[in-house]
Amino acid sequence: MTQASLLDWTEGAEGIVWQQCSACGHGWYFRRTFCPKCGAGSPEARQASGAGTVHAITRVMRAPSEALRPYAPYNIVLVDLGEGLRVMAHADDGVAIGDRVTAAFVTFGDRIVPRFSKG
Amino acid sequence: MSWITGVGLTPFGKHPGRSTLDLMSEAATGALADAHLERRQIDGLLTGYSTTFPHLMLSTLFAEHFGIVPSYAHAIQLGGATGFGMVMLAHHLVEAGLAENVLVVAGENRLTGQSRDSAVQTLAQVGHPVYEVPLGATIPAYYGLVASRYMHEYGTTEQDFAALAVLMRSHAVRHPGAQFREPITEADVLASKPVASPLKLLDCCPVSDGGAAFVVSRHRTSDHGVRIVGTAQAHTHQHVSAAPSLTSFGAADSSRAAMKAAGVALADVDYAAIYDSFTITVTILLEEIGLAPRGAAGRMARDGHFSKTGKVPLNLHGGLLSYGHCGVGGAMAHLVEMHLQLTGRAGDRQAGSPKLALLHGDGGVLSSHVSLVAERVQ
Ligand SMILES: [Zn+2]
Question: 3-state DSSP call for residue B183?
């Protein structure tokens, strides 16, 4: 699969995409055109399975803007995906640290965001 | 070695109608007077930034406005660690002989100079613009994430966090310049409005107007015998999503390196000035640096260990949590108070006669760390 075909939630598509270095195997989340560990170019884009474990969670009571205020309160989590990377996302009410979760995609303001549910 | 020859600090809170340059000027005037120096004797100038007054060249703009003609000047940006970062640089500049007297100055009308939404959104840019900010994450949310993990790992409770807020308020009560001076209890903190769990309103520092300044000099210019004897930094990440750990950041490495440079041990420290943007921030920093064992900061605060009569008095002006937070100048107030304490000028806040201070600032989401060691010399 070419990189161009792997759109993710940050571009309006349902998916979490990460990158992996073809030279050293290092994996990471924030999109770049090179490996931040060894500097090699042309990293591979990979679709995450969306399954992981909750590492941290907070319930946001006050949204940062008028447009997002109707959504509050909402839960923000850091999830450790099975692929070995950590992502920030939303989560259902009742999700706790250590829970096994899977991602779906929901509307939030003028975009979609990943939201994790138990199971 | 360098000397902190003078300090200046405005009250924090609301200064309606006063600009960034006004607040910087007031603080700088105080610092120069305290150092017994004239404008013409300032040959180095370091500034930070102001979110209400973004400018490409704040240092030279301020130099022109204030009326100084430095031979060395620029601004630096390191979030909440900017103030101590400037002190570290000033220390090395005078040690290297590049300047005799470096003015370090910051000020911002962060409270009255913009709307609350604007302040929240500007500060949220500490988050990743593509992967974090669109989720509706706020600065309290980033710290709320860290706090949730910390509680999970070390058994820290919301009441333990509250004890730090109560401590800072108990100190601010004695400072006429503090933004919040009404005493509070742990119950008040626990009952305050939820912001981003587990953090509530009183776990979070306020937004303030204010300014702070100091002069770092190659030679002593006044009676104030306070010198900087160790400095260090550590930078582990920018975004909380990319932090290598949510329980160990750069604070231990940075503070150890600064103490090594100073040739002192943690047990020698008898005054602490530690960044406290949230109760979780100061909890983690105290425990990672080793001023409290893991999980113990709240209990020790409650037991008086960090009070003015305690073993290691902490932020006796009230910290960011109660003195207030005007941006770059926020943590600089911690250094001003340290200077007053080490020179015996803190009035009814005075904690005996401390000799050795450890200062630690952090920027971002526990991302950038700067540690300083200062000592009193007769
Ligand atoms: Zn690589």
Answer: coil
ipTM: 0.96
- Distance (angstroms) between ligand 1 centre and the Cα of B134 equals 28
Is A15 in the B-facing interface, judged by CB distances under 8 Å? no
- The CA distance from A100 to B9, in Å, is 50
Pairing mode, strands B101-109 and B44-47: parallel
Number of domains in chain B: 1
Q: Which amino acid appears at position B79 of this protein?
A: G
Q: What is the pLDDT along chain B (378 residues), one digit of tens a residue?
A: 899 999 999 999 999 999 999 999 999 999 999 999 999 999 999 999 999 999 999 999 999 999 999 999 999 999 999 999 999 999 999 999 999 999 999 999 999 998 777 777 777 778 999 999 999 999 999 999 999 999 999 999 999 999 999 999 999 999 999 999 999 999 999 999 999 999 999 999 999 999 999 999 999 999 999 999 999 999 999 999 999 999 999 999 999 999 999 999 999 999 999 999 999 999 999 999 999 999 999 999 999 999 999 999 999 999 999 999 999 999 999 999 999 999 999 999 999 999 999 999 999 999 999 999 999 998
DSSP codes joined into one string, B213-247:
EEEEESS--SS--EEEEEEEEEE--SSGGG-S-SS
Q: Give A74's contacts in chain B (Cβ within 8 Å).
A: 136
| CATH number of the CATH domain containing B23 | 3.40.47.10
Identify whether residues A19 and A63 lie together within a single domain.
Answer: no
Task: Using an 8 Å CB-CB cutoff, list chain B residues near A65.
Answer: 117, 121
Please tell me whether residues A106 and A55 are part of one structural domain: yes
Query: Containing domain of residue A113, as a range?
Result: 51-118
φ, ψ of residue A9 to 5 degrees: the values are: -60, -30
CB-based contact, A30 to chain B, within 8 Å:
yes
Asked whether the beta carbons of B76 and B89 are under 8 A apart, the reply is yes
A107 lies in the same domain as A85: yes
Q: Which of A17, A61, A80 to mutate to test the interface with B (most CBs of B within 10 A)?
A: A61
Tell whether A59 and A41 lie within a shared domain. no
- The count of structural domains within chain A is 2
Residues of B with CB under 8 A from a CB of A: 117, 120-121, 124, 128, 130-132, 134-138, 140-141, 144-149, 152, 193-199, 239-242, 246
Q: Are residues A68 and A37 in the same domain?
A: no
Taking the model in full, what pTM does it have?
A: 0.96
Interchain proximity A71–B240, CB inside 8 Å:
no
Q: Can you read off the two tokens belonging to residue A24?
A: 């050293």
Nearest CA in chain B to A62: B195
